[in-house]
# Entry
Amino acid sequence: MDLTKTFPRSPKAKLAGLVMLARTTDKARAHNAGSPGPYHYGCGMDTHVLGFLGSDPKSFADAVARLGDDAAIEGWAQERLRGKNQSEIASFNADFAEDGPASGSDAERFFHSERQRLHRGDIKTWFELLDVDEGRDVPVRTAA
# Structure
């Protein structure tokens, strides 16, 4: 995958029933191919989903290189999900999808500057920020 020419999948896209795993897979493929573009493989979001699977960026990149397609990677992930029930997976997905920056952190300052750059002060989560930045539709939130 060449992330100098395209975007990775949305963090909302699921692989093996997990959010972020499809995106992390795309980034691992680009990392392995030497074409990550502006994307940092092994970032905090990647390590979060990989940690849930009991893996790490190096091991996962090696698995992606060895396994190749999404179906094989999905099988690899499902093996690692054994012992986790659907409730745990659903909770992981929901919590991750609603994650935003920690209050007072450098990440929060970055998040706010990106929202300003994108003219989207309504964005509350990292998933929304990534999707808007990559041109995906994220409905505008209105004040209640």
The beta strands are 14-15, 18-19. The chain has a mean pLDDT of 95. The longest strand covers residues 14-15.
